[in-house]
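Note to self: the last two entries modelled the partners one at a time, which told us nothing about the interface. This time every component goes in together.
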Amino acid sequence: MSALDRDLVIIGGGPAGMAAALEARRHGVQTLLIDERTSLGGQIYRQPAPGPRPPTREARTGRVIADEVAASGAEIRLQTTVWGATGNELAVACADSSCARIRARKIIVAAGAYDRPIAFPGWTLPGVMTAGCAHALVTTQHVVPGKRILVAGSGALIVSFAAQLHRHGANVVGVLEAATRPTVAAVTRLIAAGASAPSVLFAGARQFTYLRRKRVPLRYSHVIVRATGDREVSEAAIARVDRDWQPIPGTEETIDVDTVCLGYGFLSSSELTRLMGCAHFYDDSLGGWIPRRDAYMRTSVDGVYAVGDGAGVGGSLLAESEGRLAGATAARDLGMLAGASPTRTVQDLTRRVERLERLRRALANLFPFGTGVYQLAKPETIVCRCEEVTQAQLLAAIGAGCHTADAVKSITRAGMGYCQGRNCGVHVEALVNVPSGALAQDRQGFRTRAPVKPIPISVLAEERFQEDPTAREWAIAMSARQRTGRSSEE
Ligand SMILES: Cc1cc2nc3c(=O)[nH]c(=O)nc-3n(C[C@H](O)[C@H](O)[C@H](O)COP(=O)(O)OP(=O)(O)OC[C@H]3O[C@@H](n4cnc5c(N)ncnc54)[C@H](O)[C@@H]3O)c2cc1C
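The predicted structure of the combined assembly is written out below.
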């Protein structure tokens, strides 16, 4: 195990992380950019698998930015996963299963987001997948996942996603939007807020019109309540829902499908900022647990900044602007902000972030999240897919006196598997917190623990790790710190 010292480490090479690296390098900051994937780009600039098909427009844009990052002199480490963090130290697992410890004077966390999972009967059947998964199949492998595809969820992206699938030749049999049809007032507010980024509004309108032209039915106030089939999904039961997304009895109907793509928005990957002890708050519309930040992207922990979808889901433009601002702030905090008018640079970047933040809020208001969707699971529905824990087992634990998500986890093992609660955590939290009427500020989630991402056991056990006694001490100190709960939420 080796120990590295760096001025600035950026975790995540999506639009936010790459923008942060470019900005920091502009000011001469020694910068290390880490990503667990094989190429830079994150979600939106995902690179295609090798093959004859031309890359998508997004992939081409991503490649140009990634080349700029490489040319900027930033050190780039791909296939490198940050699995632990304490203070200003990071534990990373590299592609060759070796382990490294990195000390950084400043850390920018730009870890992105993942699809918000919603458990309902049949959600574990083959053919039921997240929109992110289907998007990756189409954009990187050029594979359309089925012949009769239902897209269900909520938010601006499901329309654009359904249109993208259709363009790739998919038969999209319907799009279900759980929220009610947007009011004229909400659309007017969105248009006003969108003046700062008209391209976003035009792109959205184009996708919407495309689906209408292709006669793909878009139904508001509808969710999928059940997926059925022998070995894979063959039928979807859908129902009308109220404003809280609770199904209205007597409105159920069925559709023949072979694929269901679920796009209920995203949850912020805030595991690392939680592990570092940054203060967080809970907000469904932003993507769950969100690090508190000042206007310059600083978290409550000195030297740690959080940007992009991992600090509140807001799309690629906002992610990029926040990344640039954090890169400039880190340079300023290191005493390295360069340029004719450094203060002006930061002010301009702050104003751009504020404008895009207004657009994000207007979009979120268009499709307010309804917690009723967390009640779709039946007693026999598997909620924790890794440990195969059912809704009935979760409810039994709560009935037996487990009143926190962590207590339910300890008794049932929900959240202890490979995905570390990414699939079931939000559901368990809703079961525990929503019925008790817990306010957002009192809400409790799973305590985050290292490793936050799956890593080979050899990373922890192999000789190279044990050779370095300080590495062992560090790992022990980190787990002790977690036991005492110092890395928790507000
Ligand atoms: C299906 C789909 C369609 C979309 N369409 C649009 C669209 O049309 N327009 C739009 O504006 N936005 C769209 N988005 C959203 C857009 O992709 C995100 O807003 C944007 O990518 C966020 O950028 P980011 O840098 O914050 O995070 P990401 O792009 O998610 O990048 C985060 C990076 O961090 C890395 N990472 C995370 N954790 C670790 C770790 N522990 N160690 C090492 N690396 C780590 C990941 O590998 C990833 O590369 C779409 C998203 C999806 C899933």
